[in-house]
């Protein structure tokens, strides 16, 4: 099996949803909201994909300025293709697209939290999340 990696190869919303379902990341993404999923695909400005022939088997989907910060929003590998180094390669290829000062930033899924430290990430406890519908307190 020869996995091919592509930078910013167009994918369909259906391909993205299918991969998320087959990677278990779909459990933490709004896959039932097609418009949201379509927006996630169309508004990403850096996507590295992994392919086995014409089957999408992995993705690193990011939003970045390419110079200072790159938020790796989704890292997903099809369950049948996990433990083959595809996820690490997707991250390395993402990093290659970035400028020398650009940080790769992500929020780990609970089950994947221990994955990132051994491959070079440092943990940061200063991440904050404002959930949809929560109002910023101005007074």
Query: What radius of gyration results from the CA coordinates?
Result: 15 Å
What is the helical fraction, as a range of percent?
A: 25-40%
The run of helices and strands is EHHEEEHEH
Cα distance spanning the termini: 59 Å
Per DSSP E runs of 2 or more residues, the count of β-strands stands at: 5
What class, by secondary structure content? alpha+beta
Shape: globular
Average pLDDT confidence is 95
Strand content: 15-25%
**Order of strands, widest sheet:** 1-2-3-4-5
What is the helix tally? 4
Give the biggest sheet.
Answer: 5 strands, mixed
CATH class: Alpha Beta
Specify the CATH architecture. 3-Layer(aba) Sandwich
Number of domains: 1
Q: What low-confidence regions span 5 or more consecutive residues with pLDDT below 50?
A: none
Q: What is the fold named in CATH at topology level?
A: Aminopeptidase
* CATH homology-level superfamily: Gcn5-related N-acetyltransferase (GNAT)
Outline of this structure?
25% of the residues lie in helices and 24% in strands. With 139 residues, it is α+β, with helices and mostly antiparallel strands. It has a single domain (3-119), classed as Gcn5-related N-acetyltransferase (GNAT) (Aminopeptidase), CATH 3.40.630.30.
Lay out the secondary structure:
Blueprint: E1 3-7, H1 13-23, H2 34-42, E2 46-52, E3 55-64, E4 69-77, H3 86-96, E5 103-105, H4 113-116
Parallel strand pairs: 4-5
Antiparallel strand pairs: 1-2, 2-3, 3-4
């Amino acid at each position: 099996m020869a996995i091919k990696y592509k930078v910013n190869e167009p994918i369909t919303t259906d391909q993205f949803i299918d991969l998320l379902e087959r990677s278990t990341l779909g459990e933490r993404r709004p896959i039932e909201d097609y418009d949201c999923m379509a927006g996630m695909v169309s508004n990403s400005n850096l996507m590295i994909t992994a392919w086995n022939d014409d089957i999408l088997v992995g993705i690193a989907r990011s939003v970045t300025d390419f110079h200072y910060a790159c938020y790796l929003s989704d890292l997903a590998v099809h369950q049948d293709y996990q433990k083959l180094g595809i996820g690490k390669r997707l991250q390395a290829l993402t990093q290659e697209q970035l400028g020398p000062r650009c940080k790769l930033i992500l929020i780990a899924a609970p089950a994947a939290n221990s994955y990132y430290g051994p491959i070079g990430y440092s943990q940061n406890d200063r991440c904050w999340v404002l959930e949809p519908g929560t109002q910023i307190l101005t007074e």
